[in-house]
Protein backbone atom coordinates (compact mmCIF):
# COMPACT_ATOMS: atom_id res chain seq x y z
CA UNK A 1 0.00 0.00 0.00
CA UNK A 2 1.58 3.35 -1.02
CA UNK A 3 2.09 6.12 1.52
CA UNK A 4 -0.80 8.55 1.80
CA UNK A 5 -0.63 12.22 0.85
CA UNK A 6 -3.17 14.89 1.69
CA UNK A 7 -3.67 18.08 -0.32
CA UNK A 8 -5.62 20.79 1.49
CA UNK A 9 -6.90 23.78 -0.51
CA UNK A 10 -8.61 26.73 1.14
CA UNK A 11 -9.54 30.28 0.16
CA UNK A 12 -9.10 33.11 2.66
CA UNK A 13 -9.13 36.88 2.19
CA UNK A 14 -8.90 36.79 -1.60
CA UNK A 15 -6.07 34.25 -1.77
CA UNK A 16 -5.72 30.52 -2.29
CA UNK A 17 -3.55 28.43 0.03
CA UNK A 18 -2.47 24.88 -0.76
CA UNK A 19 -0.77 22.53 1.70
CA UNK A 20 0.69 19.09 0.93
CA UNK A 21 1.04 16.76 3.92
CA UNK A 22 2.34 13.25 4.48
CA UNK A 23 1.26 11.66 7.75
CA UNK A 24 0.59 15.14 9.12
CA UNK A 25 4.04 16.45 8.18
CA UNK A 26 3.97 19.49 5.89
CA UNK A 27 5.82 18.77 2.61
CA UNK A 28 4.92 21.75 0.46
CA UNK A 29 2.95 24.97 0.60
CA UNK A 30 1.73 27.50 -1.95
CA UNK A 31 0.02 30.83 -1.48
CA UNK A 32 -1.10 33.27 -4.14
CA UNK A 33 -3.58 36.05 -4.62
CA UNK A 34 -6.64 35.00 -6.60
CA UNK A 35 -6.08 37.68 -9.24
CA UNK A 36 -2.38 36.79 -9.59
CA UNK A 37 -1.15 34.06 -11.88
CA UNK A 38 1.95 31.93 -11.73
CA UNK A 39 3.78 32.11 -15.05
CA UNK A 40 5.99 29.02 -14.72
CA UNK A 41 4.85 26.48 -17.31
CA UNK A 42 2.59 28.96 -19.12
CA UNK A 43 2.59 29.12 -22.91
CA UNK A 44 2.84 32.71 -24.18
CA UNK A 45 2.93 34.63 -27.41
CA UNK A 46 5.72 37.17 -26.98
CA UNK A 47 7.30 39.81 -29.18
CA UNK A 48 11.07 39.94 -29.68
CA UNK A 49 12.31 43.32 -28.42
CA UNK A 50 16.07 42.92 -28.83
CA UNK A 51 18.43 40.23 -30.09
CA UNK A 52 21.91 40.18 -28.56
CA UNK A 53 24.14 37.82 -30.59
CA UNK A 54 27.09 38.33 -28.23
CA UNK A 55 24.96 37.21 -25.28
CA UNK A 56 23.37 34.48 -27.46
CA UNK A 57 19.92 35.50 -26.27
CA UNK A 58 16.97 37.74 -26.97
CA UNK A 59 14.74 39.85 -24.75
CA UNK A 60 11.06 39.18 -25.30
CA UNK A 61 8.05 41.27 -24.30
CA UNK A 62 5.67 38.89 -22.50
CA UNK A 63 3.41 41.52 -20.96
CA UNK A 64 5.27 41.81 -17.66
CA UNK A 65 7.25 44.66 -16.18
CA UNK A 66 10.49 42.93 -17.17
CA UNK A 67 11.15 41.40 -20.57
CA UNK A 68 11.78 37.67 -20.63
CA UNK A 69 15.21 36.19 -21.40
CA UNK A 70 15.19 33.74 -24.34
CA UNK A 71 18.35 31.84 -25.36
CA UNK A 72 19.01 31.70 -29.10
CA UNK A 73 20.20 28.11 -28.88
CA UNK A 74 17.73 25.43 -27.80
CA UNK A 75 18.12 21.64 -27.61
CA UNK A 76 19.61 19.80 -30.58
CA UNK A 77 16.28 18.03 -31.13
CA UNK A 78 14.47 21.38 -31.36
CA UNK A 79 16.85 22.69 -34.02
CA UNK A 80 16.83 19.39 -35.88
CA UNK A 81 13.09 19.86 -36.29
CA UNK A 82 12.96 23.65 -36.73
CA UNK A 83 16.30 24.50 -38.35
CA UNK A 84 18.23 27.50 -37.04
CA UNK A 85 14.91 29.17 -36.09
CA UNK A 86 16.36 32.71 -36.10
CA UNK A 87 15.02 35.33 -33.71
CA UNK A 88 14.24 38.66 -35.40
CA UNK A 89 13.44 41.92 -33.62
CA UNK A 90 9.74 42.76 -33.90
CA UNK A 91 8.65 39.20 -34.69
CA UNK A 92 6.19 37.25 -32.57
CA UNK A 93 7.41 34.03 -30.96
CA UNK A 94 5.71 31.23 -29.00
CA UNK A 95 7.56 30.69 -25.71
CA UNK A 96 7.13 28.82 -22.46
CA UNK A 97 8.18 30.14 -19.05
CA UNK A 98 10.78 27.91 -17.37
CA UNK A 99 11.59 30.24 -14.46
CA UNK A 100 9.49 33.13 -13.21
CA UNK A 101 10.95 36.61 -12.89
CA UNK A 102 12.84 37.24 -9.68
CA UNK A 103 14.28 40.47 -8.34
CA UNK A 104 15.69 42.41 -11.28
CA UNK A 105 15.78 39.39 -13.59
CA UNK A 106 13.06 38.72 -16.12
CA UNK A 107 11.45 35.34 -16.68
CA UNK A 108 13.59 32.64 -18.29
CA UNK A 109 11.94 31.44 -21.51
CA UNK A 110 12.25 28.60 -23.99
CA UNK A 111 10.86 27.82 -27.44
CA UNK A 112 11.29 24.09 -26.80
CA UNK A 113 7.84 23.68 -25.24
CA UNK A 114 7.18 20.82 -22.78
CA UNK A 115 3.65 20.00 -21.59
CA UNK A 116 3.68 17.80 -18.46
CA UNK A 117 1.25 14.99 -17.80
CA UNK A 118 1.16 12.25 -15.20
CA UNK A 119 2.67 9.68 -17.57
CA UNK A 120 4.49 11.65 -20.25
CA UNK A 121 6.14 14.99 -20.92
CA UNK A 122 5.05 16.04 -24.41
CA UNK A 123 7.37 18.22 -26.54
CA UNK A 124 5.48 19.42 -29.64
CA UNK A 125 8.46 21.33 -31.11
CA UNK A 126 10.84 18.36 -31.22
CA UNK A 127 10.85 14.68 -32.09
CA UNK A 128 13.07 13.49 -29.25
CA UNK A 129 11.93 10.32 -27.43
CA UNK A 130 13.42 9.92 -23.97
CA UNK A 131 12.92 8.21 -20.64
CA UNK A 132 12.78 9.64 -17.11
CA UNK A 133 16.01 9.39 -15.12
CA UNK A 134 13.98 7.68 -12.39
CA UNK A 135 13.82 4.61 -14.65
CA UNK A 136 17.17 2.91 -13.99
CA UNK A 137 16.38 -0.76 -14.56
CA UNK A 138 17.64 -1.72 -18.08
CA UNK A 139 14.57 -3.79 -18.93
CA UNK A 140 12.19 -1.05 -17.77
CA UNK A 141 14.23 1.54 -19.66
CA UNK A 142 13.91 -0.45 -22.89
CA UNK A 143 10.17 -0.94 -22.38
CA UNK A 144 9.62 2.76 -21.63
CA UNK A 145 11.60 3.80 -24.71
CA UNK A 146 9.50 1.52 -26.92
CA UNK A 147 6.34 2.90 -25.36
CA UNK A 148 7.49 6.46 -26.02
CA UNK A 149 8.19 5.75 -29.70
CA UNK A 150 4.76 4.18 -30.09
CA UNK A 151 3.03 7.10 -28.38
CA UNK A 152 4.88 9.79 -30.34
CA UNK A 153 4.69 8.03 -33.71
CA UNK A 154 6.91 10.72 -35.21
CA UNK A 155 4.37 13.52 -34.52
CA UNK A 156 6.00 15.09 -31.46
CA UNK A 157 8.68 14.50 -28.88
CA UNK A 158 8.00 12.77 -25.59
CA UNK A 159 9.69 11.77 -22.35
CA UNK A 160 8.13 8.77 -20.65
CA UNK A 161 7.74 9.28 -16.92
CA UNK A 162 8.23 6.58 -14.29
CA UNK A 163 4.50 6.49 -13.57
CA UNK A 164 3.84 5.20 -17.11
CA UNK A 165 5.38 1.84 -16.17
CA UNK A 166 2.49 1.19 -13.79
CA UNK A 167 -0.32 2.59 -15.93
CA UNK A 168 -2.52 0.97 -18.54
CA UNK A 169 -1.07 1.41 -22.02
CA UNK A 170 -4.27 3.01 -23.29
CA UNK A 171 -4.17 5.59 -20.48
CA UNK A 172 -0.66 6.67 -21.51
CA UNK A 173 -1.74 7.01 -25.15
CA UNK A 174 -4.90 8.88 -24.13
CA UNK A 175 -2.97 11.38 -22.01
CA UNK A 176 -0.45 12.08 -24.78
CA UNK A 177 -3.27 12.71 -27.26
CA UNK A 178 -4.97 15.05 -24.79
CA UNK A 179 -1.75 17.04 -24.30
CA UNK A 180 -1.17 17.25 -28.05
CA UNK A 181 -4.74 18.45 -28.59
CA UNK A 182 -4.22 21.08 -25.88
CA UNK A 183 -1.14 22.34 -27.77
CA UNK A 184 -3.00 22.43 -31.08
CA UNK A 185 -5.94 24.34 -29.59
CA UNK A 186 -3.65 26.83 -27.83
CA UNK A 187 -1.72 27.64 -31.01
CA UNK A 188 -4.51 27.37 -33.59
CA UNK A 189 -5.38 31.08 -33.55
CA UNK A 190 -1.95 32.61 -32.98
CA UNK A 191 -2.24 34.69 -36.17
CA UNK A 192 -5.35 36.38 -34.78
CA UNK A 193 -3.84 37.14 -31.35
CA UNK A 194 -1.93 40.30 -30.55
CA UNK A 195 1.32 39.79 -28.61
CA UNK A 196 1.97 39.71 -25.73
CA UNK A 197 -0.74 37.21 -24.83
CA UNK A 198 -1.26 34.06 -22.75
CA UNK A 199 -2.00 31.04 -24.94
CA UNK A 200 -2.13 28.33 -22.26
CA UNK A 201 -1.95 28.71 -18.48
CA UNK A 202 -0.39 26.06 -16.24
CA UNK A 203 -2.82 24.12 -14.02
CA UNK A 204 -3.58 25.26 -10.45
CA UNK A 205 -1.01 24.13 -7.89
CA UNK A 206 -3.22 21.43 -6.35
CA UNK A 207 -3.69 19.81 -9.77
CA UNK A 208 0.07 19.83 -10.33
CA UNK A 209 0.65 18.16 -6.96
CA UNK A 210 -1.99 15.51 -7.64
CA UNK A 211 -0.57 14.86 -11.11
CA UNK A 212 3.02 14.52 -9.91
CA UNK A 213 2.44 12.46 -6.76
CA UNK A 214 -0.54 10.24 -7.60
CA UNK A 215 1.63 7.55 -9.20
CA UNK A 216 3.74 7.07 -6.06
CA UNK A 217 1.33 7.89 -3.27
CA UNK A 218 -2.35 7.49 -2.43
CA UNK A 219 -3.48 11.11 -2.77
CA UNK A 220 -6.43 12.65 -0.96
CA UNK A 221 -7.57 16.04 -2.24
CA UNK A 222 -9.59 18.19 0.17
CA UNK A 223 -11.44 21.14 -1.40
CA UNK A 224 -14.14 23.56 -0.36
CA UNK A 225 -17.40 22.59 -2.04
CA UNK A 226 -17.40 25.48 -4.51
CA UNK A 227 -14.00 24.28 -5.77
CA UNK A 228 -15.11 20.74 -6.59
CA UNK A 229 -15.58 21.53 -10.28
CA UNK A 230 -11.84 22.12 -10.52
CA UNK A 231 -10.89 18.81 -8.94
CA UNK A 232 -8.20 16.88 -10.81
CA UNK A 233 -8.86 13.46 -12.27
CA UNK A 234 -5.24 12.23 -11.96
CA UNK A 235 -6.08 9.48 -9.48
CA UNK A 236 -6.73 11.68 -6.45
CA UNK A 237 -9.50 10.77 -4.04
CA UNK A 238 -11.50 13.99 -3.73
CA UNK A 239 -13.35 15.18 -0.61
CA UNK A 240 -15.62 18.21 -0.36
CA UNK A 241 -15.83 20.38 2.77
CA UNK A 242 -17.50 23.48 4.06
CA UNK A 243 -15.27 26.44 4.86
CA UNK A 244 -15.56 25.65 8.58
CA UNK A 245 -14.57 22.02 8.00
CA UNK A 246 -11.59 23.06 5.87
CA UNK A 247 -10.38 25.47 8.56
CA UNK A 248 -10.65 22.64 11.09
CA UNK A 249 -8.55 20.38 8.86
CA UNK A 250 -5.98 23.16 8.49
CA UNK A 251 -5.79 23.65 12.24
CA UNK A 252 -5.88 19.93 13.04
CA UNK A 253 -2.81 19.38 10.91
CA UNK A 254 -1.03 22.35 12.50
CA UNK A 255 -0.30 23.87 9.11
CA UNK A 256 0.21 27.40 10.41
CA UNK A 257 2.59 26.25 13.17
CA UNK A 258 4.58 24.11 10.72
CA UNK A 259 4.88 27.11 8.40
CA UNK A 260 6.10 29.26 11.27
CA UNK A 261 8.69 26.62 12.19
CA UNK A 262 9.86 26.44 8.55
CA UNK A 263 10.72 30.14 8.60
CA UNK A 264 13.09 29.64 11.50
CA UNK A 265 16.83 29.53 10.86
CA UNK A 266 17.28 26.68 13.35
CA UNK A 267 15.50 23.34 12.95
CA UNK A 268 15.72 21.02 16.01
CA UNK A 269 16.37 17.31 15.46
CA UNK A 270 15.91 14.32 17.80
CA UNK A 271 18.69 13.85 20.35
CA UNK A 272 19.53 17.54 20.56
CA UNK A 273 21.04 17.86 17.07
CA UNK A 274 19.89 20.66 14.77
CA UNK A 275 20.01 22.12 11.28
CA UNK A 276 21.00 25.72 10.61
CA UNK A 277 19.55 26.89 7.29
CA UNK A 278 20.67 30.12 5.64
CA UNK A 279 19.02 31.35 2.44
CA UNK A 280 21.00 33.67 0.17
CA UNK A 281 20.70 35.08 -3.35
CA UNK A 282 23.55 33.02 -4.82
CA UNK A 283 23.10 29.78 -2.86
CA UNK A 284 21.58 28.21 0.24
CA UNK A 285 23.47 26.42 3.02
CA UNK A 286 22.43 23.77 5.53
CA UNK A 287 24.69 23.08 8.50
CA UNK A 288 24.25 19.87 10.52
CA UNK A 289 25.10 20.42 14.18
CA UNK A 290 25.73 17.44 16.47
CA UNK A 291 23.50 16.74 19.44
CA UNK A 292 24.06 15.43 22.94
CA UNK A 293 24.42 11.77 21.95
CA UNK A 294 27.89 10.42 22.78
CA UNK A 295 27.50 6.86 21.51
CA UNK A 296 26.48 5.17 18.29
CA UNK A 297 25.45 1.63 17.35
CA UNK A 298 28.28 -0.84 17.02
CA UNK A 299 30.04 -0.58 13.67
CA UNK A 300 28.86 2.98 13.06
CA UNK A 301 30.61 6.24 13.91
CA UNK A 302 28.73 8.91 15.83
CA UNK A 303 29.14 11.34 12.92
CA UNK A 304 27.59 8.87 10.47
CA UNK A 305 24.70 8.12 12.80
CA UNK A 306 23.79 11.78 13.31
CA UNK A 307 24.21 12.63 9.62
CA UNK A 308 21.89 9.80 8.61
CA UNK A 309 19.33 10.86 11.23
CA UNK A 310 19.38 14.41 9.83
CA UNK A 311 18.77 13.45 6.20
CA UNK A 312 14.95 12.95 6.24
CA UNK A 313 14.48 16.41 7.77
CA UNK A 314 16.99 17.96 5.34
CA UNK A 315 14.97 16.57 2.41
CA UNK A 316 11.70 17.83 3.93
CA UNK A 317 13.05 21.31 4.57
CA UNK A 318 14.39 21.61 1.01
CA UNK A 319 10.97 20.70 -0.39
CA UNK A 320 8.95 22.75 2.09
CA UNK A 321 11.07 25.89 1.81
CA UNK A 322 11.32 25.35 -1.97
CA UNK A 323 15.07 25.94 -1.86
CA UNK A 324 16.53 25.95 -5.36
CA UNK A 325 19.63 26.73 -7.35
CA UNK A 326 22.89 25.80 -5.59
CA UNK A 327 22.65 24.14 -2.17
CA UNK A 328 25.57 23.23 0.10
CA UNK A 329 25.17 20.86 3.07
CA UNK A 330 27.82 20.87 5.77
CA UNK A 331 27.46 17.43 7.33
CA UNK A 332 29.32 16.50 10.51
CA UNK A 333 32.88 15.65 9.43
CA UNK A 334 33.48 12.09 8.26
CA UNK A 335 36.91 10.77 7.28
CA UNK A 336 35.85 7.39 5.90
CA UNK A 337 35.00 7.52 2.15
CA UNK A 338 32.59 4.62 2.67
CA UNK A 339 30.64 6.67 5.22
CA UNK A 340 30.48 9.63 2.84
CA UNK A 341 29.15 7.33 0.13
CA UNK A 342 26.51 6.00 2.54
CA UNK A 343 25.38 9.51 3.41
CA UNK A 344 25.26 10.52 -0.27
CA UNK A 345 23.16 7.46 -1.15
CA UNK A 346 20.78 8.10 1.75
CA UNK A 347 20.34 11.74 0.72
CA UNK A 348 19.68 10.80 -2.90
CA UNK A 349 17.06 8.30 -1.77
CA UNK A 350 15.39 10.88 0.53
CA UNK A 351 15.22 13.42 -2.30
CA UNK A 352 13.96 10.90 -4.87
CA UNK A 353 10.36 11.55 -3.81
CA UNK A 354 10.63 15.24 -4.70
CA UNK A 355 8.60 16.34 -7.72
CA UNK A 356 11.27 18.94 -8.53
CA UNK A 357 14.42 17.80 -10.31
CA UNK A 358 17.37 17.66 -7.89
CA UNK A 359 20.91 16.64 -8.82
CA UNK A 360 23.58 15.59 -6.31
CA UNK A 361 27.10 16.59 -7.35
CA UNK A 362 28.89 14.90 -4.46
CA UNK A 363 31.26 16.16 -1.78
CA UNK A 364 33.50 19.10 -2.63
CA UNK A 365 37.20 19.28 -1.76
CA UNK A 366 36.15 21.11 1.42
CA UNK A 367 33.85 18.25 2.45
CA UNK A 368 30.56 20.00 1.62
CA UNK A 369 27.77 18.13 -0.15
CA UNK A 370 26.85 20.07 -3.29
CA UNK A 371 23.50 19.75 -5.05
CA UNK A 372 21.34 21.75 -7.41
CA UNK A 373 17.54 21.94 -7.52
CA UNK A 374 15.47 23.37 -10.33
CA UNK A 375 13.88 26.73 -9.51
CA UNK A 376 10.09 26.77 -9.76
CA UNK A 377 8.44 29.78 -8.22
CA UNK A 378 9.10 31.62 -4.98
CA UNK A 379 10.67 30.19 -1.86
CA UNK A 380 8.53 29.84 1.25
CA UNK A 381 10.32 32.81 2.81
CA UNK A 382 9.61 34.97 -0.25
CA UNK A 383 5.93 34.02 -0.07
CA UNK A 384 5.43 34.64 3.63
CA UNK A 385 7.83 37.43 4.60
CA UNK A 386 9.09 40.80 3.42
CA UNK A 387 12.56 42.30 4.05
CA UNK A 388 12.94 44.56 7.08
CA UNK A 389 13.06 48.22 6.05
CA UNK A 390 15.73 48.95 8.70
CA UNK A 391 18.24 46.10 8.17
CA UNK A 392 17.48 45.30 4.52
CA UNK A 393 16.72 41.69 5.37
CA UNK A 394 20.06 40.92 7.01
CA UNK A 395 18.42 40.22 10.34
CA UNK A 396 20.99 42.23 12.29
CA UNK A 397 21.29 45.71 13.75
CA UNK A 398 23.84 48.21 12.50
CA UNK A 399 25.71 49.53 15.56
CA UNK A 400 27.51 52.33 13.68
Taken as a percent bin, the fraction of beta residues is: 25-35%
Cα(first) to Cα(last) distance is 61 Å
The helicity comes to 25-40%
Q: What is the total tally of β strands?
A: 21
Order of helices and strands: EEEEEEHEEEEEHEHEHEEHHEEEHEHEEH
Silhouette? globular
Mean pLDDT: 88
Give the class from helix and strand content and strand pairing: alpha+beta
List keywords for this structure.
single chain, 400 residues, alpha+beta, 6-stranded antiparallel β-sheet, 6-stranded mixed β-sheet, 9 helices, 21 strands
Question: Could you describe the 3D structure shown?
Answer:
- The chain is an alpha+beta fold and 400 residues long.
- Helix content is 27%, strand content 30%.
- It contains nine helices and 21 strands.
- The strands form four sheets. Strands 4, 5, 6, 7, 8 and 13 form a six-stranded antiparallel β-sheet that branches. A six-stranded mixed β-sheet has the order 16-17-18-19-21-20, covered by helices on one side. The protein has a five-stranded mixed β-sheet with strand order 3-2-1-14-15, with helices on both faces.
- Helix 7 packs parallel to helix 8 (337-351).
- The protein is globular, with a radius of gyration of 23 Å.
- The termini are far apart.
- The mean pLDDT is 88.
